[in-house]
């Protein structure tokens, strides 16, 4: 911030941090939903048994019916966790 003072208006430098939606988080459809479905339907996910299959199916069937307090899709959180586990834990 100190470096930017004098170059950028203080109102920009000192403004509160904001939230911007990640498209897949707010609008889980198309390629984003396909990605989530692929991750959550994978053999690795099924064998891990971390999530109840009936809930995963429910979230995938109607992602915008199940949202967080920021109106993001809960299925996005599950898919990201599972994807991270596949990339960083399963490879060990």
Automatic annotation (TrEMBL):
MF terms in GO: asparagine synthase (glutamine-hydrolyzing) activity
Quote the protein name from its UniProt record.
Answer: Asparagine synthase glutamine-hydrolyzing
Name the Pfam families for this protein. Asn_synthase
Asparagine synthetase domain sequence ranges: 1-86
Q: Which InterPro entries match?
A: Asn_synthase
Biological-process GO terms, alphabetical: asparagine biosynthetic process
């Amino acid at each position: 911030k100190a470096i930017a003072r004098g170059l950028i208006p203080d109102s920009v430098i000192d403004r509160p941090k904001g939230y911007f939606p990640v498209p897949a988080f707010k609008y889980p459809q198309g390629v984003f939903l396909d990605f989530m479905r692929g991750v959550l339907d994978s053999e690795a996910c099924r064998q891990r048994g971390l999530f109840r299959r009936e809930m995963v199916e429910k979230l995938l069937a109607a992602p915008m019916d199940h949202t967080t307090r920021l109106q993001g899709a809960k299925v996005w959180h599950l898919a990201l966790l599972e994807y991270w586990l596949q990339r960083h834990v399963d490879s060990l």
